[in-house]
Amino acid sequence: IALAGFLLAILAGLFGTPVGSRNFGIVFVWIAWWAILMLVAVPFLGRGWCSICPIPAPGEWLQRGTMLGPRGKAKGLGRRWPKRFRNIWLQNGSFLLVALFSTVILTQPYITAIVLAAFLFVALGASLIFERRAFCRYLCPVGGFIGLYSQLAPVELRVMDTAVCAAHTEKTCYTGSADGYGCPWGVFPPGMVKNTYCGTCMECLRTCPHDNIALNVRSLGADLSEKRNRKLDEAYKAFIMLGAAAVYSAVLLGPWGTLKLAAYSVGSLSWMAYAASFLILILLALPGIFWLMVWLGKRLSDASQPTKKLFISQAYALVPLGLTAWIAFSLSFVFANFSYVLVALSDPFGWGWNLLGTADIAWTPWLTNLTPFLQVGVLVGGFIWAATTSQKIASEKLDAARATRLASPVIGFCLVFTLTLMGLLIA
Hints:
3% strand
């Protein structure tokens, strides 16, 4: 079903009306799907979207030689992903690449169709060359930020008793069995401590003969307290997502016509200046300012840990701040434009169809008076969550007083960003 909708979005973008508000590709990808993803799926289900994402499906069917069974006549080379790229740096790069062209992607159906088709073909190629879901784990720009924010979700897949796993020599949760596939993400369930790379496909539940893996409900943000596996690539993803939320708010919702024009004029000198500013802000300015805050906190607290290690660990405080920034940004246009969904359902190509009798519904913004209050509440909640996370991470190695001194500059950074985003979204 998801693949059918995905293909319909591509076809609508290629052959439907160029008017974005009347085209299924724009309306369902960048309004309906994005709203569900950022307001429901990621905050509450983590990688729940990845469990039904259609992009890897065709390649995976060829890779396994079957659509429904766990084994068939496999196609492809089945090579292992190169060790040096077993991180999310390529995902960081792919997200930045999409983000640079986001204004035209979000508004032009034909460009949206090309991007969606490119995702499909790259995933297909990766499946025929590499084993498992290499595209999802190492390349997908959407999967990168979903993985980052899945650390906040109140659900997790975890092994219940590692001793049972140690005694089970076949390790069918990873290798697969007649009941299901081996983990498509290349994750070894007994060693999993965070949600970041678990696609919640549930294959490990099917293949564990001892019923030793469970879907648990847990406290929000539980993974942020996990001291292991804090990495620089994930820290930079936090900066990328944080900066992109601010830039999108300024470009798409702000009053600066010159900035909008520059973002839309792909290939022009003004666009090149915009792209350079975008990259400098995200890759240099935000991390640089944050590094200074961490260094200042280290001096104030007399912490003995290297600044780089403190920088990486404190960057995880930006994960809740980033998610709430994206939720607030999404609230700006979701309620205002959701009525377009009813129109696109009846007339997906903009050809004058009226399949469900809703094609003539006039654009009607919803809850616009309530939206600013929701945004303020979300952003304030994100700031408080980020501040408590920073304090908690600092307290792992320091007493309460020194931890407060270490965290204070980072909390100040989070406060300034929150106030800036409020100004961009609400003022």
